[in-house]
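Lecture notes, unit on binding sites. The following record was shown on slide 14. It pairs a sequence with magnesium ion.
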Amino acid sequence: MEVLIGTADIHRRVGELGRQIGRDHPEGTPILVGVLSGCIFFLADLMRAVPIPHEIDFVSVSSYGTSSKSSGAPRLIKDVDRDIAERDVVLVEDIVDSGHTLAFLRETFLARRPRSLRIATLIDKRGRRERAVPIDYVGFEIPDRFIVGYGLDYAERYRHLPYIAAISPAELNDEPATHSTGTV
Ligand code: IMP
Ligand code: MG
């Protein structure tokens, strides 16, 4: 494994994003909606950096595919607990890859008529996009590498790492051959 983004760099950037989210919501109180489970570190640090009153909620989206490639057919398996109509919402994702997950979530949420809907992602793998999706807050743009740590997993492993590391293709070859259903 190779460290791509160190702990200090992550915290500095998340601090910047948090202050930007604060500036963009002068009439507050936005709801930060984390996409489980990869969002947990990012959301927890972001909350401490957003200098205005805000609420949090969570969604969980199913993915079907091998653990290093997400599929194109996401489905909501846990919804938010509150009505988001007329609210300011910020979706908080760990990583945008093909864009299918966020495009699906964006359509689902826009149909509920929030006052505003913005999207934050810690990591953007822009080169892999299959569906265009507007992103308001990007922590880091990275090339096409499979990464783990700071909430991101490979087959549910490595989420606990306090930095972001790339896994080599050789390490990815250990991937289980059978497809499994999980969450993003
Ligand atoms: P998308 O729908 O292709 O944009 O996929 C988004 C989801 O795929 C993320 O929420 C992650 O769960 C997963 N994913 C994509 N790339 C990576 C990666 O490099 N490391 C870990 N998970 C990833
Ligand atoms: Mg994942």
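Take-home: The chain has a mean pLDDT of 91.
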